[in-house]
Amino acid sequence: MRVLILGGDGYLGWPTAMDFAAKGHDVWVMDNYMRRNIARETCSEALMPNPNLHDRAEIFHALTGGKIHVVVGNCADYRLLSKVFVECQPETVIHYAEQPSAPYSMRGFDEARLTFNNNLNATFNLIWAVMEHAPSCHIVKLGTMGEYGTPNIDIEEGWLEVEHNGRKDKFLFPRQAGSLYHTTKVLDTDLLWFYVRTHGLRVTDLMQGPVYGLASEQSEMDERLLPNFHYDDIFGTVVNRFLVQAVASVPLTIYGKGGQTRGYLNLKDTLQCVELAMNTPVEPGKLRILNQFTEQFSVKQLAEKVQRVGNAMGLNVQIKNIDNPRKELEEHYYNAKHYGLLEMGLKPHYMTEEVIAEMLEMVARYKSGIDRNKIEPRVRWKQQS
């Protein structure tokens, strides 16, 4: 299959590119290095050094014989994106090309504007490129479970049937995002749903929970192929941050009470989910929404898991509750459905003690590169007066 991966340099994009190329697909990746650049601007660089996209593709080719076509450019530039579509003629587009950090989007006006403009323009341009150049193409869009917020009812898989005054209808599940980043993802879903209804696009929107992990099958061949692993307060997901804190002898920082509960999944399962979505495209005029996670944990439970495994390895892991820099419920009901991908064949990698130990061991190999100044929260949702 001809596959175009937008955001192909990212934490998820690069492993996806390698995985698909290794399985024989004709893979194109496009990225403008925005995440690398804003990570440098905010002193939030990744733990492991990562070669640029061209070098990564050459290393991968030398090791496997697989080819990944690389385009360095901005998806918010519609003319360039159109040119790539004409050349690639994708059958599937995997859309990762967004500013992915909630804290970054709440840092100030410039960061908020960049997040808003990039995320909405990238999605809007993708929609039009598909309509103009590849109308039968299947869009697989990475959404986020953060779109739903923490409602006091069960979170259904994308849709909600409502009965009102004796009549029934089905609507997108109500969204109440907790950051500007998550709000742009809500707007993405609304944009896609409009064009699905109006122009008959084929879209799968993956509502993904926070991802953890360092390695994929391909990166185990050569550590230069590792994903961009961030552990800081701006780009690092909570599990990855806890792993680095444990290795660096920094107390695991729980924001507030630690009851914040979300659905999590291993990086390897992200690859599975995206492949399952790609291999089972929806019919024209359909928006399929899948909740993409395998297990639910509170932040406190995650910290205790890492502490237990770390202490068994002799790391002397401590836990510290700190003032919550975010505006969010710290104790709440959370029950999200996630049956679609399991029915499609997802074989989960669960967060066992063995998995945590393996990740800690790998992080420890890069211990000398850990910058402790990147761990404490530097962004507050509400600015201090």
Low-confidence stretches: none
- Please work out how many helical segments DSSP would assign: 12
Radius of gyration: 20 Å
Number of domains: 1
CATH architecture type: 3-Layer(aba) Sandwich
In quaternary terms, these chains amount to single chain
The chain-level structural class is alpha/beta
CATH fold assignment: Rossmann fold
Helical content class: 25-40%
Q: How many E-type strands?
A: 14
What overall geometry do the principal axes of the alpha carbons give?
globular
User: DSSP strand (E) fraction?
Assistant: 15-25%
Characterize the biggest β-sheet. Answer: 7 strands, parallel
The secondary-structure element order is: EHEHHEHEHHEEEHEEHEEHEEHEHH
CATH superfamily: NAD(P)-binding Rossmann-like Domain
Describe the structure.
It is globular and about 55 Å long. The strands form four sheets. Strands 3-2-1-4-5-8-12 form a seven-stranded parallel beta sheet, with helices on both faces. Strands 9-11-13 form a three-stranded mixed beta sheet. It has a two-stranded antiparallel ribbon with strand order 6-7. The longest helix has 25 residues. Helix content is 37%, strand content 19%. It starts with a strand and ends in a 21-residue tail after the last helix. The protein contains twelve helices and 14 strands. The chain has a single domain, classed as Rossmann fold (3-Layer(aba) Sandwich), CATH 3.40.50. It has 385 residues and is an alpha/beta fold.
Q: How would you summarize the topology of this molecule?
A:
Layout lengths: L1 E5 L6 H10 L3 E6 L2 H8 L11 H12 L3 E5 L5 H11 L3 E4 L6 H4 L3 H25 L4 E7 L14 E6 L2 E6 L7 H20 L2 E7 L2 E2 L25 H10 L4 E4 L5 E6 H13 L6 E7 L2 E4 H14 L6 E4 L17 H5 L8 H12 L21
Parallel strand pairs: 1-2, 1-4, 2-3, 4-5, 5-8, 8-12, 9-11, 10-14
Antiparallel strand pairs: 6-7, 11-13
Helix pairs in contact: 1-9, 4-6, 6-7, 8-10, 8-12, 10-12
